[in-house]
Write a structure and sequence with these properties.
Blueprint: H1 2-16, E1 31-38, E2 42-51, E3 56-61, H2 70-80, E4 84-94, E5 101-103, H3 105-118, H4 123-130, E6 137-139, H5 146-213, H6 220-234, H7 237-254, H8 261-282, H9 285-305
Parallel strand pairs: 3-4
Antiparallel strand pairs: 1-2, 2-4, 5-6
């Protein structure tokens, strides 16, 4: 009986994993992207870093001269990155001779005159102290150059592309791990089905022996009715079918055209519900041991699924 049960399950086993040979489209929420563009007088550096989060949590750092363009940059990033805790940094480094910072001569001279009244040090020392005072330097605000901002947007897109590739590579690793875990759960389910008939026979004998130990005459028909009632309580046929369907559905979600970590999380909850019910109904130590192993594999999936986009 056990051999026949196992053989009958093989087609179901292989159909469950028919999708595993395909490419996985899931992506990790962990990623990093960087782009550097060198202009004649400036060096533009864009950095993007993302971690897992339930929703998009975008934090941007841009130079004050580009604050008016921050909203446009945020929209561009939000359109590409759906979820995750994202940090965006824009660095502008002046590499040419041109600079917007100038010495505020009038303020510096006033500082030096005031310092002369309280100090007898040389002019050079007074100058060193004066340039460190507030407002000794002034920065002239320049209008944003359209061509320069276009280069910045190009750098942002390049960083987004690099981050997306990073997420895809991490997603492949996650997908391979999920494949192993789901395969292990399916193999454990086959073992459970293989010992199910043996378990039911043991439960039946246990109930009959309990009645015999009472040394009381019982109505055989009534006993059979009660026996059927208890065996139905221990029956796990529905849970086995639903669990197989959930495993197949999980693999379908992995192979879908878009990454959906929330859907994977929901399916994990359903898988866990069926595994728990099988464990509570098993009333058989060998089966309960298999259920514990299934739970262990599922917990590993749940932990990793939190990082799926």
């Amino acid at each position: 009986k056990i051999t026949r049960c196992t053989n009958n399950l093989l087609p179901l086993y292989f159909s469950t994993f028919a999708l595993l040979n395909g490419n996985y489209m899931i992506k990790s929420m962990t990623g990093y992207g960087k782009s550097v563009i060198q202009l004649p007088t400036k060096k533009i550096t864009v950095e993007l870093k993302s971690l897992n989060s339930k929703n998009l949590d975008l934090n941007t750092r841009v130079p004050s001269s580009y604050r008016e363009k921050e909203l446009e940059i945020r929209k561009l990033i939000s359109k590409s990155l759906v979820r995750g805790k994202v940090d965006f940094n824009l660095y502008i480094e002046v590499t040419g001779e041109k600079t917007t910072a100038k010495v505020n001569e009038g303020v510096v001279k006033q500082y030096m005159n005031q310092l002369k009244n309280i100090s007898s040090v040389a002019e050079v020392e007074l100058l060193k102290m004066a340039v460190k005072m507030p407002d000794s330097m002034k920065t002239e605000r320049e209008e944003i150059d359209a061509g320069e901002f276009k280069n910045i947007l190009e750098a942002v897109n390049e960083a987004l592309t690099a981050l997306d590739k990073y997420r895809s590579d991490e997603g492949t690793v996650l997908g391979n791990d999920f494949k192993i875990r789901i395969k292990n759960i399916s193999e454990l389910l086959i073992k459970i089905l293989a010992i199910d008939s043996e378990r039911m026979a043991i439960v039946k004998n246990r109930l009959r022996k309990a009645v015999e130990d009472l040394k009381e005459a019982v109505d055989e028909n009534r006993f059979e009715q009660e026996l059927i009632y208890y065996l139905e309580k221990y029956d796990i046929t529905e849970e086995k079918v639903r669990l197989k369907n959930h495993l197949y559905y999980f693999n379908g979600a992995l192979a879908s055209s878009d990454s959906n970590g929330k859907k994977i999380g929901f399916i994990c909850q359903e898988i866990g519900r069926e595994i728990n019910t099988i464990g509570s109904k098993s009333n058989h130590a060998p089966m309960q041991q298999l259920v514990v192993q299934m739970k262990d594999e599922l917990e590993k999936i749940k932990e990793q699924s939190l990082n799926v986009l």
